[in-house]
Automatic annotation (TrEMBL):
UniProt record similarity statement: Belongs to the class-III pyridoxal-phosphate-dependent aminotransferase family.
Keywords linked to the UniProt accession: Amino-acid biosynthesis, Aminotransferase, Proline biosynthesis, Pyridoxal phosphate, Transferase
One of the record's GO molecular function terms: ornithine aminotransferase activity
Source species, domain of life: Bacteria
Coiled-coil parts of chain: none
GO biological process: L-proline biosynthetic process
EC number per UniProt: 2.6.1.13
Cofactor needs: pyridoxal 5'-phosphate
NCBIfam families reported for this sequence: Orn_aminotrans
Record's keyword annotation contains Amino-acid biosynthesis: yes
Pathway(s) served: Amino-acid biosynthesis; L-proline biosynthesis; L-glutamate 5-semialdehyde from L-ornithine: step 1/1
Signal peptide: none
Protein name: ornithine aminotransferase
The species this protein was found in: Pseudonocardia asaccharolytica DSM 44247 = NBRC 16224
Length: 407
């Protein structure tokens, strides 16, 4: 292929270096097309996408049913604002509420907005239902969690990179170690209105809490009359082989935060899902979003819900996940310090003696497999649930080969 500017990786990298804010450090690949688990870069090279947009692409690139839903709605109606109703909003909210098993849905756009909305909701609920004195509400969160990038959210992050230089921060948060139910119980005071947790910590490196932790969190929240808010923006909607990772661990949260895969990898769509005695505290004028619940997003969301309801995606995640964890387990002690995960979602810690996580990702990229490092030496694998067993084996062969060549 002759290289012109538009199909030269270097040309795109230069444009991005000069004109795109440097808040990311992408791998040296510039993608032009995607289909299923595969993407093609501007120079025509093909890669297996084993990141899947941090799980926003759970159903793969260009899923035909999702694209058809988007295309059909695109021609009819895309935006009304919430000043008026649309014929997609009611059905979307009803179908998502049914899927999750709660009464009501508050549609937003990004994951961070769902988290912010959940925090606002918890404070209002605390003042109105629990009679917490004005401006005293506190929320317990977990160390090493990830919930997005707004000022409030990075304010309670324990990652110095995420919070450094962005203060002053929103007060009212108490941080406890993740996975320690006693510490969580001890942090709850009469002013605590909610506990916010990821049922599996994604950005921390796919950290699955000890068995019994989430049920213990549920018990502590019930005992203190505190809302359990589960941030399932990344863990929810199929990644773990279940609609909700919290339920799979034997607990039920009061408030579920969903995002990423809810928009089918086509557009941003997030939601706060809870019963009417909680979400009902929000009344007209007290919260909103110009794009939240727009008909285009709702139409795609409805197609996503239908895919999840049908069940085969969840089944794939469980079966392929078992295969992936067995293969990754074989690498422990062979250059990999530990491997863990659930469903089609894994974190592996590379022995720092072999190289950084970044180096492993660059070598995998050169072998046609896209993954992303997190926290120096951890690699996170989250292929789309539509990946075939053969494609997954190919990706795992590449991981094995890279670990061997570095060792
Ligand atoms: C990605 C993520 C968010 C933030 O979502 P954005 O759409 O990037 O704002 C929040 N919580 C969790 C658990 C996430 O993984």
């Amino acid at each position: 292929m002759t290289l012109t500017a538009e199909n030269s990786t270097r040309w795109h990298e230069q444009l991005m270096a000069e004109h795109s804010a440097h808040n990311y450090h992408p791998l040296p690949v510039v993608i032009a097309e995607g289909r299923g688990a595969w993407v093609t870069d501007v120079e025509g090279r093909r890669y297996l996408d084993c990141l899947a947009g941090y799980s926003a692409l759970n159903f793969g690139h260009g899923h035909p049913g999702l694209v058809a839903a988007a295309r059909g709605q695109l021609e009819r109606l895309t935006l009304t604002s919430r000043a008026f109703g649309s014929d997609q909003l009611g059905p979307f909210c009803a179908e998502l509420a049914t899927l999750v098993g709660k009464d009501m849905v508050l549609p937003m756009n990004t994951g961070a907005e769902a988290v912010e909305s959940g925090l606002k909701l918890a404070r209002k609920w605390g003042y109105e239902v629990r009679d917490v004195p004005a401006d005293r509400a506190r929320i317990v969160v977990a160390a090493r969690g990830f919930h997005g990038r707004t000022i409030t959210i990075v304010g309670f992050s324990t990652d110095p990179e995420a919070r450094g230089g962005f203060g002053p921060f929103t007060p009212g948060f108490d941080v406890v170690p993740y996975g320690d139910a006693d510490a969580l119980r001890a942090a709850i005071t009469p002013e605590t209105v909610a506990v916010l947790l990821e049922p599996v910590q994604g950005e921390a490196g796919v950290v699955v809490p000890p068995a019994g932790y989430l049920p213990a969190v549920r018990e502590a929240c019930t005992a203190a009359n505190v809302l359990f808010i589960a941030d399932e923006v990344q863990s929810g909607l199929g990644r773990t082989g279940h609609v909700l990772a919290t339920r799979a661990a034997g607990a039920d949260a009061d408030v579920y935060l969903l995002g990423k895969a809810l928009g089918g990898g086509i557009l941003p769509l997030s939601a706060v899902v809870a019963d009417a005695d909680v979400l009902g505290v929000l009344r007209p004028g007290q919260h909103g979003s110009t794009f939240g619940g727009n008909p285009l997003a709702c139409a795609v969301g409805r197609a996503v819900i239908e895919l999840l309801r049908e069940g085969s995606m969840l089944q794939r995640a469980r079966a392929l996940g078992a295969r992936m964890h067995a293969r990754l387990g074989e690498l422990v002690g062979q250059g990999v310090l530990s491997a863990r995960g659930i469903g089609l979602w894994a974190g592996i810690d590379i022995d720092p003696a072999l190289g950084t996580g970044r180096e492993v990702c660059e070598r995998l990229c050169a072998r046609g497999v896209l993954v992303k490092d997190t926290h120096d030496s951890t690699i996170r694998l989250s292929p789309p649930l539509v990946i075939t067993a053969e494609e997954l084996d190919g990706a795992l062969d590449a991981v094995t080969a890279v670990v061997r060549e570095l060792g």
